[in-house]
Amino acid sequence: MDLQLDDFRLTFEENKKTVRKLSDMKDFYADQRMATRTLQLYDPTIYAVYAHESEGPGNLSYAVTVINPGDIGGEYYMTKGHFHTKPTAELYLGLEGEGILLLQDRKGKAKKLPLQPGKISYVPKDHAHRAINTGDSQLKFLAIYSSDSGHDYSTIKEKGFEERVKKK
Ligand code: S6P
Ligand code: ZN
Q1: Distance from the CA of 153 to the center of ligand 1, in angstroms?
Q2: Cα(4)–Cα(6) distance, rounded to whole angstroms?
């Protein structure tokens, strides 16, 4: 299926905005020396999430994430990444910019999917997911997920992903 759409404007009312700066996720980067050095100079915004969250089972939440271009010691700006607390899947739709959606199952098997305008990617249940901006402009994508999925950040914070996406 290949659909040519006219330029369109995406609008929705967010009820939650989250901004992640380097100081919020310093430990996620491999090059700790570079992360510390950067923070001595300034605290860049890595990404922002504009979400419309609903509550309870049976409902859907959705969010647009905007990841700035940049890297820390060659490792591209990225989201923290998480598992869903409940085994629920998720849908990603690329809107602008170029990036990678990194998936990893509970056994640590990783997979990289392209994140680009018009591309729909399916995040299967029980897969950690992280978005990475590999381009030189902002990466924007829409995520649609179950309202009661819950977010487990600690597993990734402790163990990380098997793969890191760095500049070549
Ligand atoms: C929610 C969905 C996205 C992320 C967002 C930021 O299930 O996967 O909306 O929350 O891209 O990533 P993270 O890992 O900081 O929540
Ligand atoms: Zn998710």
Answers
A1: 10
A2: 7
